[in-house]
Amino acid sequence: MIPRRRVALYLGAIILLALLVGFWYLIAIQQSQQLASLHFDGARALRDVEAQVAFGPRIPNSEGHARALKWMQTQLESAGWQVRVGSDVSMGHPIQNLTAFRTAQPPQILLGAHYDSRIYANRDPDPAKRTQPVPGADDGASGVAVLIELARTLPRDSVPVWLVFFDAEDNGEIPGWDWLLGSRSYVANMTVKPKAMVLVDMVGGADLKLPMESNSDPGLRGSIWDTAAKLGYGTVFIPQVKYSIEDDHLPFIEAGIPAVDIIDLDYAYWHTTSDTPQHVSASSLQTVGDVLWTWLGEQVVPPK
Questions:
Q1: What whole-number distance in Å separates Cα of residue 137 and Cα of residue 49?
Q2: Can you tell me the distance from the alpha carbon of 218 to that of 223, in angstroms, rounded to the nearest whole number?
Q3: CA atoms of 137 and 279, how far apart (whole Å)
Q4: Among 175, 153, 178, 171, which residue's Cα sits nearest to residue 163?
Q5: pLDDT at 38 (0 to 100)
Q6: What is the pTM assigned to this prediction?
Q7: CA 144 to chain centre
Q8: Of 31, 80, 93, 197, whose CB count within 10 A is highest?
Q9: Rounded to whole angstroms, how far apart are CA atoms 45 and 143?
């Protein structure tokens, strides 16, 4: 017969071992969750596209626009970013550009996307729908979703980055409006000068193709497309110039800041009422997110 004292010691050791195993298991789960949080999630980004479209048209000074602005602020602050919303007026329209930052350091890189949507679906194949608003799932919401997901997942020791969400980009060729009102206002009022600006616009289409844009800075453009090739995304980030586009990167180029436009202008539902989440792909968002996440990690962090 085993003495009771020894039985008690055995039981105590077993309980202690079980507690240690449970403790290390919880730590392993926590570390796994933290590791997972450091990687871009295209499926989560697609849900962010759906959330934005559900607000309704994000036309400046509309209810949907106000809801989208508040949602972006909430998402960014929840991810640990500070948010500043600037107010301006252009062509009689209120402009609200949102800037997000994590540290007091000036930005080395500025990532941008526009969050407004177009008043009229002037390219819709049905003439009766051309006075209806564009839902803006790819044209607007996809770029915002990529930036929001990067905000959640970029390591805190990455190169200093600011995220900028431009207002009033998408209503050119409409009486009383012009293109790029938000980004022109932003650059005119900018008090810091980043080394580079990367624009993300229309990057969620299911059949995503991202050729190079001719107005973009060649060196900056080449470095991003090289990163895409290293990751195996060379069939999406196509290393050939195809477009010359008036987009939110132009005001930065005009101000002497190297900038690049990442855009798929061949998206079939551009400026139509069919620019809806069903035509946006989590895989496409994942591709663009992976490339930017990796490219940012390759940039040199300046000494403090």
A1: 6
A2: 9
A3: 8
A4: 153
A5: 76
A6: 0.87
A7: 4
A8: 197
A9: 10
Q: How far apart are CA 238 and CA 241, in angstroms?
A: 8
What is residue 104's predicted lDDT score, i.e. its pLDDT?
A: 87
Return d(Cα 78, Cα 133) in angstroms, integer: 30
Angle at 69 between CA 63 and CA 54, to 5 degrees: 60
Residues of the chain with pLDDT under 50: 7, 20-36
Reported as a single tens digit per residue, the pLDDT across 241-265 is 999 999 999 999 999 999 999 999 9
Tell me the two tokens of residue 26: 């919880």
SS (H, E, C) 183-198: HHHHHHCCCCCCCEEE
DSSP conformation letters of 50-110: HHHHHT----TTSHHHHHHHHHHHHHHHHTT-EEEEEEEEETTEEEEEEEEESSSSPPSEE
